[in-house]
Amino acid sequence: MNLMQLIINVIYAASIYAVVAYSYYFMYSARKFLNMSHAAIIALGAYLAFEIKKQLAWNIFIVIPFSVAITAIIAITVFLLIFKPLQKRKASSTKMLVASLGIYLVLQNLISLIWLDAPKSLCSWPVKRGHNILDVYITNEQILMIVVSIALLGVLLLFSKKTTIGKSIRAVASDSVLADVSGIDSYAVVLWAFAISSGLGGLAGILIAIDVDMTPTMGMNAFMMGVVTVIIGGVNSILGIALAALLLAITQHFGAWFIGSQWQDAIAFVILVLFLLFKPEGFFGKKVKSATV
Amino acid sequence: MLKVNELHTGYGKKPVLFGPSLEISKGKIVAIIGPNGAGKSTILKAICGLIPVWDGKITFEDSCINDSTPAKNVKRGITFCPQGNRVFDELSVNENLQIGGIYLKKKELAGRIDDVLQLFPMLKDRLKQNAGTLSGGEQQMLALGRALIPRPKLLLLDEPSLGLSPNLISTAFERIQQVNRERGTAILIVEQKVRKVLKICHKVYGIKLGKVVFDGQPEQIRHDERLRQIFL
Ligand SMILES: Nc1ncnc2c1ncn2[C@@H]1O[C@H](COP(=O)(O)OP(=O)(O)OP(=O)(O)O)[C@@H](O)[C@H]1O
Ligand SMILES: [Mg+2]
User: Fold this and answer.
1) Could you tell me the sign of the dihedral formed by the alpha carbons of A103, A109, A112, A117, in that order?
2) Do B71 and A183 touch (CB under 8 A)?
């Protein structure tokens, strides 16, 4: 494999990590618990797109926003039915995690029941499968993923910095009690964050499924890498996530080049452990505040 | 303006306040003093709506606010600076101030921020900086500024001196007095730096184990040997 191809592969892998991590970022910053059900939401987005496309035969670019919206609505329903009562009872993050694992299993099994376990493919529309530019092979689907991840970076940065909801989510992430006493309805903000995250999660699932076939468990792998990316990025920074995705992809691919591709996941977790040990606040995360002046 | 009548509340099932009553009238500075764990912060949290009132009554401008939320109280004219001069570390100074008036229209908000910057010009050069990188004194100013954006009639301050050096404490108290004087804001302030707060307040309540054990003029504490031993 030549170097140029390796770089393209790295950028593509980084794009997947980044898109999944962006999708997890909002819910995690608003309400800090490991929400495993997000893994099922990622797969659900892909399967909904598959079904809508099959039934209505719409263009994929109409199918995508439609599926994203339905995914967000389903996720919010789940939130209202299960997470909201738990939150009312001030459940610990561990209890929320266990509940979310239960939701993941239920949703994933539902997907298996409805669509069966055999891999399904989203991209049956007529496009040329790939391009060969200067000895580098890249497909349209991969280009789409890269373009979307870069566009999302810009859109989400603007959203976070400029809009009232974006700023409110950041305020709740920073100090939810202070947000409350400042007049922010932090509960409504958490709901917004879940809706945005779930919609983006659905989008991530669709984009992944456009390139590789979908299976009911496809969300978990993507989700784990997304979580690793968010933690390395420093949970409070969209730019940090983008950098973390690049770092992960670079070390994984160059590592695989030297020691073999079966080690890719292991490499990701080694990096995670290194960050947790030596830079637990991530790239741009919260620094520990000095106690006195 | 604000009346607290036989307030009972606590955390979970554990009671912390056992019926303290207090009152603050328009434009005054009233101090709450007392040892650690007496329940001073808890009084402020109950007034601003962060924790539920179990029993008793809180009235603000003749309406009962027992069941009000912090957000509703902000609009009503009660704002709160929690203990530790908390600011949103990851947000810029400007964004911190914007959050203080998140419910306002853009134009109005900009005017309010200008007002606060006039009061605290030092913050002007730091608008783009992350609040977490400010010095302790600057953070105190920002915390106060954030709470002033809604133009409150009543400001609740929980230990604004916490973590500040003696010099900075004096400046902080001057600022608080300035807000009270120039804007006529009533201030209910919890403080452990008793000597200093007695100099700026009009009335003082002493709290011990969730009850009011003293209320009166600041001079009374300074001149009473027994009270001095308890509170100074
Ligand atoms: N969030 C909480 N959950 C449970 N108990 C609490 C909580 N906050 C305070 N308490 C308890 O309530 C009691 C009163 O606390 P409070 O913070 O009101 O005291 P304080 O007078 O403000 O003390 P300090 O001067 O140390 O700030 C203490 O016994 C404390 O341990
Ligand atoms: Mg306190």
Assistant:
1) positive
2) yes
B97 pairs with which residues across the strands? none
- Measured from the CB, is residue B40 less than 6 Å from ligand 1? yes
Percent of chain A having pLDDT more than 70?
Answer: 94
Separation in Å, CA B130 to CA A286, A287, B161: 11, 12, 22
- Which residue range is the domain that position A209 belongs to? 16-222
Written as six digits, the tokens of A70 are 């339905």
A237 lies in some domain: no
- Whether the predicted interface score ipTM is above 0.90: yes
In a domain? residue A90: yes
Whether B71 and A180 lie within 8 Å, measured CB to CB? yes
Beta bridge partners of A112: none
Size of interface A-B (CB pairs under 8 A): 79
Question: B42 and chain A: CB distance < 8 Å anywhere?
Answer: no
For residue A65, count other CB atoms closer than 10 A to its CB: 11
pTM for the whole thing? 0.90
What are the tens digits of pLDDT across the range B200-210? 999 999 999 99
Indicate which CATH number applies to the domain containing B30: 3.40.50.300
DSSP track, B161-189? TTT--HHHHHHHHHHHHHHHHHH--EEEE
User: A19 with A204: CB under 8 angstroms?
Assistant: yes
Q: Is residue A271 part of a domain?
A: no
Domain hosting B214: range is 2-231
Number of domains present in the structure of chain A: 1
Domains in chain B, number: 1
